[in-house]
Amino acid sequence: MKKIIALFLVLTALSCSSEDQVNQEVSAVGDSASVLDGKMLSFKNEELFVKEYSDLASLDSDGLKNWVSSKKLVSLLNTSDDSASIEGDVLSESRIIYSDALKSILNSESKVKINGNVLWLNERTFYLLSKNQINKTPEQLVAEKEKLEVYGSLLSVSSPVKNSTGRDVIPNENRIKTFVSGEENFNVPGSRIRLVLDLYNETIVLNNVIQSSKMYLRSTLQYRSCSTWRCTWKEASNSRVIDTYSLSGSNSVLWKFSLFQMATSATQTSLIATWNPANLPAPTAPTAWYTNFNVSGPFKIYVGNGPYHEVQLSWY
Hints:
The protein is α+β, with helices and mostly antiparallel strands. The chain has one domain (2-312). The chain has 6 helices and 16 strands. The strands form 2 sheets. Strands 1, 2, 3, 4, 5, 6, 7, 8, 9, 10, 12 and 14 form a 12-stranded mixed β-sheet that branches. The N and C termini lie far apart (42 Å). The model is unreliable at 1-11 and 21-28 (pLDDT under 50). Residues 1-18 form the signal peptide.
């Protein structure tokens, strides 16, 4: 009983704190330069696009939803659902995961306007749309994407070398590493529960220049759901506390960490590190800026009346 009361107090305190933080952060992001232009957001230039994206990356799920609502945008965040990709017992690390920050900026057709140009994101490629293509549906654009002009990418790159266009590459750009904790780790009476952690990089390249590179952690609690024909894993709504304060990295000067503790009952995508070479003096060899992210330490989760469960994180 004492544990239950203690957990209730923790959840209440964190919830109130989170609500105050959301209000403050949405107000700060509300001064952004993006405006709704028809059915998509419009930015004057790439710098303002990246700034808004970076500001949104620090918000939690409620903060992002409030921001999208304030923009009156029908966003990809509110219309997409990739839960089916993690329903199986075995999960592919070749999955494409967009951050909630990026999905908040893109409209439901994955389009955005920057400097007067309409861009369409399909899988890992940004395409520049002509006036005759702007109003075409994603299905129509897919059918003719070989004819579209490539403007940028979220390409998955593993080697720390220059790519075919000659730009520098951050090792393991846009890759995913997934950690699955089985049901034996959770004491939830009457349920079979597992935890899926997706640690992933999102590097945005526009005009052949890295505009941003961030590391995100998505935590999803699932329960086992069985029908006559098969069993799958569905999103669970158990109250929980998640904690990343014990994480660290040896290159934390170049990769600025953003650690957190929060109460939630839903899937959370959280920023944990940002590639930040701008605040460092120029190195003798510029390639020194393009170093691999690394992380060590446990991700902690407290579900129901059970003890903390820890997942030791690492990167490639």
